[in-house]
Design a protein that fits this description.
Shape: rod-shaped
Radius of gyration: 21 Å
Distance between the termini: 68 Å
Number of strands: 0
Largest sheet: none
Length: 50
């Protein structure tokens, strides 16, 4: 299979962007989960519930 220069460039771009995209997604999900988790904690620790 012959790989052209543009194909190789696209593969390199994908190889570079994929980990960054995954890290960004994980960071985004962690931040959202953390905010939801903090909301639940503050709700459970509030005096009204106790």
């Amino acid at each position: 299979m012959h790989i052209g220069k543009t194909d190789r460039f696209i593969l390199v771009v994908i190889a570079v962007l994929a980990p960054l995209l995954i890290i960004a997604m994980i960071h985004f999900l962690n931040r959202n989960v953390k905010s939801v988790y903090d909301n639940v904690l503050t709700e459970q620790l509030s005096p009204e519930v106790l």
